[in-house]
Amino acid sequence: MMVKHRHLLDFTGWTADELLALFDTTDVMAQVLQRTIKKVPALQGFTVSTLFFESSTRTRLSFERAARAQSADVISFAAGGSSLAKGESLKDTLRTIDAMQVDLYVVRHAAAGVPYQLARWTDAAIVNAGDGRRAHPTQALLDAYTFRTSFPGFDGFAGKKLAIIGDILHSRVARSNLELWTRLGATVALCGPATLLPRELEQPRLSLHHRLEPTLEGAQAVMALRLQQERMTSGLLPSLAEYRARYQLTEAVMALAHPNAIVMHPGPMNRDVEISSSLADSPRSVIERQVANGVPVRMAVLYTLLVGKK
Amino acid sequence: MNTVKATLMSGMEVARALTRIAHEIIERNKGADKLVLIGIHTRGVPIAERLAGLIGEFEGVRPPLGKLDITLYRDDLSEIALQPVVKKTEVAQVHGMRIVLCDDVLYTGRTARAALDALIDLGRPAVIQLAVLIDRGHRELPIRADYVGKNVPTSRQEIVKVKLAEVDGADGVDLLELT
Amino acid sequence: MSRTIITNARLIGEQSLADLYLKDSLIEGVNLGGEVSHTFDAAGKLVTPAFIDLHTHLREPGQEVKEDLASGLAAAAAGGYGTVVSMANTDPVIDDPGLVTDLLAKAERLGLARLRPAAALSRGLKGAQLTDFAALQAAGAVMLTDDGIPVADGHLLRRACEYAAELGLVIQTHSEEPSLRQDGVMNEGTVSQRLGLPGNPVQAEAVMVYRDCELALMTGARVHIAHVSSRRGLQLIEWFKAQGAPVTAEVTPHHLTLTDETLGAFDPIYKVAPPLRTAEDVAYLRGALARAVVDSIGTDHAPHTRAEKDLDLLQAPSGIANLEVAFPLLYTKLVLDGVLTLTDLLHYFQSGPAKVMGWPAPSLAPGAPADLTVIDLESARPVTPSAFQSKAKFSPWDGWQLQGWPVATFVRGRRVGS
């Protein structure tokens, strides 16, 4: 029996069946986007507001597209605009927008926990589009969905292995993928230099490594994370050259993984830093499909949370 | 728990009704040319399949089949308490075709209206007709069926339950009391 | 002349209830009889010397939206405190003798809990230049501290210690090493990694505690280490004490009752510096109280506005307001749960802080200042922040059922607060 979830803040409380049902709904939404009329009236009369305290044009547009494709009305708020004043309390910002009768907020913020705080102050649904380094559930969903749709005759996540390489410490993409894939029955291997790989993340179905070989062994999905320039200047890493030599994902390195393994990246990519240009453009790379899958996945999420609300 | 008040149609009667409807479809459309049978999930699908089979028997040409999920077009979403399962829509060619939408029960007409919207978003049919096994009255919209298996006057406290072998193991139509 | 009788008082160490007499601003004696001008019926409740807090942020001057002398000293009295040492990280910083004089004068006029101001150790709290210790002391400052901001420059602290030692002043340190602390907003550990929040490791405290103790040992200065939050920090202090270092340790009510797990609610009400630590740290701190390794319990009462505490976890200021719940909280969680005796707990609120400062031990003997508090040890009621005297009408212990509520506080022989 499915429980009605109010929010998608992370995957706490979501069962594997509910998550797989989201993927089934995503299939239908993907189909809608293939038609001439890429629109359904499913969310007509609902108002969705994007509330991006941390800017990200790509993700915000992906959500807005997902809302409009279902005939919902969209209100956009982005940091830097006069509408989100610095220092104005979160609560006051929310109250101002709530007055416009918003049914669902898509929130991105540099501080972890903000979606939880907002959920206390409004009756609207909240979808977390990224809070600090903690969680980014829709990214994980589209990553897992891309994996699911990469293999004809896909027989489920149990027994599969996802490898993530890079700055795990600062990555909400890594944390959410870890949470999601293990929930679906897969195992996850995280790999990075000691300064960027927190040992406290230990949990069942997770292995932590500093070398690529054990990380990639048997992995059917391999994901490279973006390495930010600041990591070099803040003393976390000696140099780009050092990182490249030890952790860059290349075709040669991919020989260590499962022969059919796909290559993923949450974007935006630093070509030839964490991933070689040629690998990013190779047939094993599903990076473009990840981006494309963002819209139907988010359509499914919005639909699932809003339907039955009024 | 809903109790069975009466049996509206036996398995045999269902089969005969579908046979008659198949003949009516052929007659009204002057043959099977450009005919497409589209079943509305869930029980409209086996009905469309059977009608397609019957038309194939009588005309020698089996019309193409489609499946339509109208969940994304419903206007009564507030009445959905739990998470509705959205199924896939599989419809090949719509443009210029003579579509017969198939469903098990015609009641308020809202499902049929949603089906019309969904269909029109897929393309521009030449004609859309509606075939149902049971018409139970209480229309809330100006919708009527072109082909009806049986007309059954009902009250709002009653439920019409259509059973089909493909879904429920046996054919038949029961009238249940909401308790 | 005023003479007050407090009837039916239960006094520590006495078997039967007694009537306590106050004459003007001093304790007169027990069961004396005679005419009185005021009566207060303690109705069997505990009567004990008013508490001393060596660590309160009263936010005046400059930050009165969070708290001011009137609300803060009223909150102190409501919490059973007769004397508070106010911190200097106000706006302007209390680094000038004139500001000390002003504060004292204002507090005097209010007639609530006694105010003993601390002054900044460095000008403007910038950690670069020492303030005029002697002049500040002459104006009434009892302690030097840059609390709020750790003194990053070891050389500056060394010179401050040498100078303070000569003047007999206590230096209170906020011991957190800034470069190890980084931008951490909570304890670094399993919980912080799970919650994806920047962590502040225990080592930031340990390293600084070590340095501050070493300087105390070297200079002979009385160094009072504020809000020790971890086992590591406390173990180092124990080690240095064993070598005769003149260091004293303070723990706060929040570090004795809350852990880093509370941050799972993503509510900045739990954001404090140093941060709430693990259950093991809390257990060690409690054990340290039982072993008398700690010297005083200080509140580090740090009020902020509700709006500030509704900011996100990175932006929200650190601090927990707790003057009014400190004693009942620890009475309920430590004494009633059998970790500490009532006498021991009272020591940490009374003679412990007095000893740190070199003040006479609080007592109810004839001739002692008539600073006392009446405490109901029996009735349990929930923490109700809306009824606080403090401007910070919210609390991490909101709704907790506690016993040991102070019902009346007398300072200089007069009942203060409501």
> What's the overall average pLDDT of chain B, rounded?
91
The secondary-structure class of chain C comes to: alpha/beta
In percent, how much strand structure appears in the residues of chain C? Answer: 15-25%
Helical coverage of chain C, percent range: 25-40%
Structural class of chain B: alpha/beta
Q: Which architecture name of chain B does CATH use?
A: 3-Layer(aba) Sandwich
End-to-end gap of chain C: 22 Å
Unreliable runs of chain B: none
> What is the number of domains of chain C?
1
Report the count of strand segments of chain C.
18
The fourth-level CATH homologous superfamily of chain C is Metal-dependent hydrolases
What is the name of the CATH topology of chain C? TIM Barrel
Q: According to CATH, what is the class of chain C?
A: Alpha Beta
> Order of helices and strands of chain B, N to C?
EHEHEEHEEEHE
**CATH class descriptor name of chain B:** Alpha Beta
Q: How many helices of chain B?
A: 4
CATH topology of chain B: Rossmann fold
Tell me the major beta sheet of chain B.
5 strands, parallel
Largest interface: A-B, 25 and 23 residues
Q: What is the makeup of the main sheet of chain C?
A: 8 strands, mixed
In oligomeric terms, what are we looking at? Answer: heterotrimer
